[in-house]
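FIELD: query
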Amino acid sequence: MLALRLTRRPALMLSAALASVLLAAAPTARADDVATVRIELTDGVINTRRIELPAKKRFRVEVTNKGKTPAEFESLPLGLELVVAPGSTRSRVLPGKSPGEYPFYDEFHMQTTQGVFVIK
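FIELD: result
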């Protein structure tokens, strides 16, 4: 049994070295390759109501809650829902979307926080 471990060890070391070389050579998506949309919610007030983005390009939605009450940023057509505690920020990267208009709102303050993503 001991001899078997000794003969496998160099193979494992070689496999680990090969894996690290392959991972280093693999292309990675950089954070700055994705457009970021920053939205601020403050107890029923939103900083923007219309957000324009290019079609078929990934984008990040970053929602900051500057208020004293919770917020639930939601866009059903985009499949996006982020519950954000007071003083917190949450984000999610979404895949590229087809051209169109995608409404959004803070579910806890629907009357005053409605807006739209316009994908062109």
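FIELD: remark
The first helix runs from residue 2 to 25.
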